[in-house]
Structure to design on (463 residues):
């Protein structure tokens, strides 16, 4: 707990338009809950900021009182970096405003907006920018790590669509970062995580999307997984950027379009979205139905915002979660044997192994165009360990780690920073590769005291 005197905390309360919570306040326990129930941290102060100027006060307070500081956007980070023990949380969950200019195809989101908030605002105009696949995720953390989802093959990483940002720096200044203003900071924000300041507003380029999009899920028996995955890989290599198909191996949830006998048994699923004319998309995906004996499918034109929420029930907050992740530029036949072996020993009904498809527009920028470097990745794999009972922690974590080790020889060695767990600080260099040194220099310029260190940390380069 902090030694900051009550008097000082009272002064902080007086200076904020938002609220300040400390242990003992009725709302405190709820405010320290985040998506991953494995994280149980007790901040001394939670500053629920209502404006950029609140953020300035909170940052100044942390720096001047030598307090550990964590930034909370959507609270989804697996590592629990949205919270800290004993320090101050700059909680942006009240700052969710969005704005869209349909004429110029630009949209902005405050630092606490979720994907659902921003998708709803942009889709009201038939526009969107690439975001992730779970609508309760924060726009902020997702964007700052790179960001990818169903639209990425067509329109790039989320950071490729970021045009500017408003940032509160460690010095407590409000600055704008773009290609022409603080360009180094702007480069670092596009993948460098929460290392460089508190982003209070993101400004994105938008694209015409839907509002109805061809999307859905096809499900095949696990006994045919090898053949389905081999065909999937060859098909994915040839698909136009408009089509994204992700593969997932897990136990079948009780979905109404699947026969009851399959519920709770292992399956391989192909989830897809086509951004463009749905008749063309339909023709393109037709061969996928022949990859094996379909157990069921639910594919059709639906509102993009609905598809963005389709996986929310499987990814609700409150479960225990442990992830391991690799990037792949190709999927080796032998990798599939390993995937299937581990899919046959899932330690809980909620665990899954998935391959998210990137490539297309995500591959085109140079690796040093943004801090996000993994332009060689075609697939981002996540071993998603998920369960409810703390008694299962060791078993589920061991399963994820064992699979991760077994699949490592086939991976690029790079990793998506947003999928790293708390214990993977040693992989931060792999997350940034050759961009790491430039990031460390920019860190020295904008945060020489490493105030923003409750994250996958990039320390300031030595003088
Ligand atoms: C269920 C689920 C599905 C996901 N799906 C995808 C996906 O499809 N694609 C994808 O790319 N990622 C995905 N992710 C990963 C996601 O991008 C990261 O978890 C990301 O960190 C979440 O951002 P957040 O704002 O919700 O998290 P938080 O935990 O609030 O923040 C994480 C970190 O980001 C930094 N940060 C947050 N807000 C700010 C801010 N305003 N200014 C400065 N720094 C800030 C801080 O360092 C903070 O510790 C998913 C995560 C989950 C849990």
């Amino acid at each position: 707990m902090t030694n900051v005197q009550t008097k000082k905390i009272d002064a902080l309360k007086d200076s904020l338009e938002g609220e300040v919570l400390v242990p003992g306040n009725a709302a405190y326990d709820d405010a320290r809950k985040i998506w991953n129930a494995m994280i149980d941290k007790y901040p001394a102060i939670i500053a629920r900021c209502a404006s950029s100027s609140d953020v300035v006060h909170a940052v100044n307070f942390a720096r001047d009182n030598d307090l550990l500081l964590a930034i909370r956007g959507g609270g989804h980070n697996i590592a629990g970096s949205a919270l800290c023990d004993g320090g101050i949380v700059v909680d942006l969950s009240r700052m969710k405003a969005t704005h869209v200019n349909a004429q110029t195809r630009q949209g902005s989101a405050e630092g606490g907006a979720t994907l659902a908030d921003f998708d709803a605002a942009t889709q009201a105009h038939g526009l969107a920018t690439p975001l992730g696949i779970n609508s309760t995720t924060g726009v902020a953390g997702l964007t700052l790590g790179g960001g990818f989802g169903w639209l990425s093959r067509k329109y790039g990483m989320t950071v490729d669509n970021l045009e500017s940002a408003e940032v509160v720096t460690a010095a407590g200044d409000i600055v704008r970062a773009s290609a022409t203003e603080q360009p180094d900071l702007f480069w670092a924000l596009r993948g460098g995580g929460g290392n460089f300041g508190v982003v209070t507003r993101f400004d994105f380029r938008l694209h015409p999307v839907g509002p109805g999009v061809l999307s859905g899920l096809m499900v095949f028996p696990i006994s045919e997984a090898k053949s389905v995955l081999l065909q999937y890989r060859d098909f994915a290599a040839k698909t136009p950027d408009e089509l994204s198909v992700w593969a997932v191996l897990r136990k079948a949830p009780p979905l109404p379009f699947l026969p009851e006998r399959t519920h709770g048994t292992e399956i391989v699923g192909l989830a897809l979205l086509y951004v463009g004319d749905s008749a063309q998309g339909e023709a393109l995906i037709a061969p996928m139905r022949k990859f094996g004996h379909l157990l069921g499918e639910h594919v059709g034109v639906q509102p993009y915002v609905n598809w963005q929420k389709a996986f929310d029930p499987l990814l609700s907050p409150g479960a225990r979660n442990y992830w391991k992740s690799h990037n792949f530029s190709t999927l080796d036949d032998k990798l599939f044997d390993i995937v299937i072996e581990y899919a046959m020993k899932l330690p809980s009904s909620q665990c899954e192994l998935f391959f998210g498809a990137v490539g297309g527009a995500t591959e085109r920028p140079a690796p040093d165009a943004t801090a996000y470097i993994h332009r060689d990745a075609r697939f981002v794999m996540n071993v998603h360990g998920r369960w409810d009972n703390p008694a299962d922690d060791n078993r589920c974590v061991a399963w994820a780690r064992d699979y991760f080790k077994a699949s490592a020889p086939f991976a690029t060695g790079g990793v998506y920073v947003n999928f790293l767990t708390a214990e993977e600080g040693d992989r931060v260099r792999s997350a940034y590769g050759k961009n790491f040194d430039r990031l460390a220099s920019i860190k020295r310029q904008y945060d020489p005291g490493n105030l923003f260190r409750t994250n996958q940390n990039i320390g300031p380069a030595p003088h």
